[in-house]
Design brief:
Blueprint (H helix, E strand, L loop, with lengths): L2 E7 L14 H15 L2 E9 L3 E6 L2 E7 L6 H12 L6 E4 L12 E5 L10 H17 L2 E4 L3 H9 L9 E3 L2 E3 L5 E3 L1
Parallel strand pairs: 1-2, 1-5, 2-4, 5-6, 6-7, 7-8
Antiparallel strand pairs: 3-4, 9-10
């Protein structure tokens, strides 16, 4: 039996499963799904969707659309769906740490792709986000940061000892052949 690896994403394909949208986080998810598959895993990508779907994206990479609200509160129903329908002992990669809301999925790391929630927002949204980020950092085995914004935010907003051991910074760039590479 093949080793299994789960990826949870806001979008891997379009919300209805029709095509792959453009964008940095989507590209990152696609690239890492191929990397994981090439390491011998059977990859299943779960994504938020406006209607349920299941598609074979590439050999060894399956995409399942989970019908749930597409806005922030839909992350909670997405997390509950994963708890009820996926083996929570299998490894998980959340391609956006805000999706990692399950308390049952413990073998998980996440990707941080920026801190848009720290911009020009009402004070209460920033205030509510702080404990959420703290819970995510303490629950996940690691957070892969594609830039240093999140790391800097954590230093400033979450002065907890030891949290830095779960934050990892990876430089993403294009090589001379035009292929995406993460280091």
């Amino acid at each position: 039996m093949a080793k299994k690896f789960n990826i949870a994403a806001f979008s891997f394909l379009a919300e209805d499963g029709s095509k792959m949208p453009l964008g940095g986080l989507t590209r990152w998810g696609r690239d890492v799904s191929f990397l994981i598959r090439d390491k011998g895993y059977e990859v299943t990508v779960y994504q938020k969707a406006t209607k349920p779907f299941e598609k074979e994206f590439a050999q060894g990479i399956r995409v399942i659309g989970v019908k749930c609200p597409m806005w922030i509160w839909g992350n909670w129903s997405f997390a509950r769906w994963l708890e009820q329908n996926v083996d929570t002992d299998d490894p998980f990669l959340f391609v956006s740490q805000e999706l990692a809301l399950s308390k049952k999925i413990r073998r998980a790391v996440a990707v941080n792709h920026g801190i848009c929630w720290n911009g020009d927002k009402p004070w209460y949204k920033k205030w509510l986000n702080r404990p959420l980020q703290y819970r995510l950092i303490t629950r996940l085995r690691g957070i892969i940061c594609v830039d240093t914004n999140y790391i800097n935010w954590c230093h400033a907003e979450l002065p907890i000892i030891g949290f830095i051991t779960v934050l990892f910074f990876f430089i993403c760039f294009k090589n001379t052949k035009g292929q995406s590479v993460s280091m």
